Amino acid sequence: MQADVVKRREKIESYKKIVLENRRNDNDRVLEYCHKIIELADETGDEDALGFAYFYIGEVEYLTNSIDEMFDSMLNALRYLGNSGQWYLAARVYNVMGITSVSRGNTVAAMEYYMSGLYICEEHDVKSVQSSIELNLGYLHLDAGVYKEAEEYFLKAYNEYVRTPAEKRRNETLTMIYTNLATCNLLADELDKAKEYIGRLKDECQASFGNMDYIYVECLEVRFHHICGDYESRDKIINDVKRRLSGNVLIMDIFDDIYDFCNLMIEIDRLDVMQEIIEKLDEPIKKTQINNLKRKFITLKIKLYMKNGDKEACDGALISFFELSEKLEKDKQKMIASILHVRNSVDKMEDKQRVLEAEKLKLLEMSETDQLTGIANRYRLVQYAQASLERCKRERIPLSYEVLDIDYFKQYNDTYGHQVGDECIKAVAGILSDIQNDSIFAARYGGDEFVVIYVGMSVVEVVRTAEVLKRRVQELGSVYKGTGVDVGVTISQGICHCIPEEDSKDRDYLYSADIMLYNVKRKKETVYV
């Protein structure tokens, strides 16, 4: 049975590799192997594999403009991604759904998705997706005419990009950042700053441009040259945009840029360009499932027909506009249902994360706490010892170690039993716990032996504290009457005190204090420093 599980896991991993090798290149192959992964993962409830497969099915549907199917796949992916800790993919789901919501004309839904994605990025340090989401949030503000806030988001995205290791940076991300910063300053009438970012695009990004990147940037440049009155440069770039739109393009990713570009063409009476672009985009737009995008495209047609005086075509477009407006109302209902589903998923992920964090803290506390006494154990002692030694070296302040044990504990234990012995250890540990503060740390080292570390305290202060500790233990008196035992308890203590040198080790302090304890016991003295 175990061998079958291992074999299935290996097969899933090999299928994942095929998906990643073929994504964005061979959609049919990606879908084929994602469905194979789901078939295998369903048998064992492998949430990691299910989340992965549904995400990449959704990515194919996004790239092919199958938006309704994409939403279903991404919602399925969310069911598993959070539970399996695939935060990078979960953040990408929210980003894609936000982009799609903007295209559908629902900026409120988009904001909900983006903020959910941003929460995941910040909680789980998903920097690469965080940069993209901040870009998209900036775009929402830009579209609303809130330029200062938009620029702040774009600059956040830029700062995240700069902090990303060079090998993980994507040129298209920097292209989007500079393009949006240029657009933001252009609309805010800051032409010099806009020109600076356009220059950065050419100097830092253009060498790696693909067709889509050129369209983004050239739509921006057309608007910039128009505002600056450089009509010769504007008209040259207009022709470049026309040519590039003849290739394969992702409609959703560039539609807003093309929409603004077409409105400018109407403004400058370049109806020939407008006509040509509408003809090129007509078929791809018909295939998309995004009704808001279709409605905006029909708006462009109506403007063109009105300019040309084509009343019949204009009337037909107006009817289509009305029909799409009704469909958009239904889209909004679907969007609300999706948001509620997503919010429920986020709440469940957050609840599970809180439970996991609480369990993690509990396990950490258990791993660092002595189960009998409740004070720090040997593991926590090692951590604290190393940190305090480094601090004392850095600040050139004293460090003291005290090793103490309970006198004649073995005979005590053998005579009165382990239960009474445990009570004795717990009583001494209770006193040690009481004296702890920012400068004093206590831990059980093992058996009846304890270690106290003093940081930044003079030798007089350390000895005075050790004497108080000894007296309080002696004052325990007959605390064991309930067990039928009425005896006094005493301890022996050995202390090492000095300012550590650069080559000092924490084990040197522990060894020296242990030697002092041995001398105390041999000579039957009180405290040995």
CATH homologous superfamily annotation of the domain at 378-528 = Reverse transcriptase/Diguanylate cyclase domain
- The CATH architecture name of the domain at 378-528 reads 2-Layer Sandwich
Q: Which structural class matches the secondary elements?
A: alpha+beta
Profile the largest sheet: 5 strands, mixed
Radius of gyration: 35 Å
Order of helices and strands: HHHHHHHHHHHHHHHHHEHHEEHEHE
CATH fold call of the domain at 378-528: Alpha-Beta Plaits
CATH class of the domain at 378-528: Alpha Beta
Q: Which residues sit in consecutive blocks of at least 5 with pLDDT less than 50?
A: 478-483
Report the β-strand fraction as a percent range.
Answer: 5-15%
End-to-end separation:
63 Å
Helix fraction, binned, reads: over 70%
Count of DSSP strands: 5
The tally of helices reads 21
Main-sheet strand order equals 2-3-1-4-5
Shape: elongated
What is the gist of this entry?
The chain has 529 residues and is of the alpha+beta class. The chain is 74% helix and 6% strand.
What does this structure look like?
With 529 residues, the chain is an alpha+beta fold. Helices cover 74% and strands 6% of the residues. β2 (440-446) and β3 (449-455) form a beta hairpin. It is elongated, with a radius of gyration of 35 Å.
